[in-house]
Amino acid sequence: MPIATTNPATGQVLKTYEAMSDEQIDAAIERADLAFRQLRETTVAQRARWLTAAADRLDAERDETARLMTTEMGKTYAAAKAEVTKCATACRFYADNAPGMLADEPADAAAVKAKRAYVRYQPIGPVLAVMPWNFPLWQVMRFAAPALMAGNTGLLKHASNVPQTALYLEDLFRRAGFPEGAFTTLLVGSDAVDRILSDPRVRAATLTGSEPAGRSIAQIAGREIKKTVLELGGSDPFVVMPSADLDTAAEVATTARCQNNGQSCIAAKRFIVHTDVFDAFAEKFAARMAALRVGDPMDDGTDVGPLASERGRDEVHAQVTDAVDQGATVLCGGEKPSGDGWYYPPTVVTDLRPEMRMWSEEVFGPVAGLFRVGSYSEAIEVANGTSFGLGSNAWTNDPAEQERFAVDLDAGNVFINGMTTSYPELPFGGVKNSGYGRELSAAGMREFCNTKTVWVGEGEAGAGAGAHSE
Ligand code: NAP
């Protein structure tokens, strides 16, 4: 894949980059390793000041950074501005809370026959981050902010279609005061990942992206015995039960499906509706989806911009066509527009069956699958019936049902009467083929820490030896 900025609204290639050579990659890893030795000697308070400076710069540079993202991958300018602000918020969250998250945790010294025992969180070294284009700033920031605060250094291999945003990130952390090499953007294709992750100086990897990319990184990391966090795809269920407020559910469903032009891992993708309210919900939802304005992502009035690539749009249309050819019903959209830009209309498809691709695959565009179910247990069966388990949504005003959904939905998160989103305060990640490990919150920061047990005794013979010695 060429490393280039191509405007999805026009198809025009605006800027291309040469991939870095092996020598340049090795030099960057060396700088990251040297920077790690420097960074781990700094105080948490110092790193917090740098991260706060990064937040201030993000706020000050919001509009031009947002414009860059919109130009590179087509999200609406309004969404891009909100993404920059969210990144600044996450930087401040970690600057404020990391001291507590990284503080030593005392253990029960008497129970472990010690004078003193505690848990210490220490950085592990340079971490490779392989990132996707869909939230080009946020996906990186939710790794970078906690990793840098913990004292690790970052090597970013960003998606090949967002090189300018990738370079902006390196520049941002440098200008905020982090040492040279603390955060480095590697302009490389995915073929360079094996070389980078195999380097003994690189201690771990985090990947946000597709299942095939996750498998590939996990294989390399397995061979090299390195920790990984994988945030992969999802086909999140959005269940609507009879007690739900249907107007609100239909409104939120529309946003949940079409945010980021439908290209979000945690977008609701499968709308599973109880038969008692199916027709009413379907009508409200399809009307709202059809009313969304598709167009130039820089325009204030646009709800849905172009998809990020022509290949991505072709894939979405192929999934819709596959369903329609096998008898599915299109309630709105479904036609691929002609003309410049990789636009696709908000689309609702129902009468889906298991043999259709849309039943089980992730659809990465503004296309909703609508499923009719007759009971709570059938809703759970359909909701859990894919290989994914990232986010999930359930709409019900029955308190007992709310509790049951929280337990029964097989996903990394359950949002009741709301849409799945990420917060710096809450862990984020999936189960099943949606990946493993967590980002955000203290859990995300500690993924790339050495959770070190420290035991201090009196130096007496026999102390510290329990029934088992391992
Ligand atoms: P992708 O093809 O997997 O690309 C993501 C990143 O992985 C890019 O930097 C890409 O580099 C790299 N990559 C691709 N194949 C690789 C391989 N074999 N080895 C190493 N690196 C590889 O993903 P995408 O299709 O662009 O992005 C959409 C996917 O990401 C969807 O499935 C979506 O659900 C998922 N996603 C998940 C989350 C989450 O938090 N769980 C968030 C956002 C997106 P190149 O660009 O150079 O190919």
From TrEMBL:
What is a single Pfam family found in this protein's UniProt entry? Aldedh
- Entry's SUPFAM superfamilies? ALDH-like
Gene Ontology molecular function terms on file: glutarate-semialdehyde dehydrogenase (NADP+) activity; succinate-semialdehyde dehydrogenase (NADP+) activity
Q: Which UniProt keywords apply?
A: NADP, Oxidoreductase
Report the EC number(s), separated by commas if there are several.
Answer: 1.2.1.16, 1.2.1.20, 1.2.1.79
The UniProt record lists the keyword NADP: yes
What EC class is this?
Answer: oxidoreductase
Residue span, Aldehyde dehydrogenase domain: 3-454
Q: Which family does it belong to?
A: Belongs to the aldehyde dehydrogenase family.
Name used for this protein in its record: Succinate-semialdehyde dehydrogenase/glutarate-semialdehyde dehydrogenase
The organism's lineage? Bacteria, Bacillati, Actinomycetota, Actinomycetes, Micromonosporales
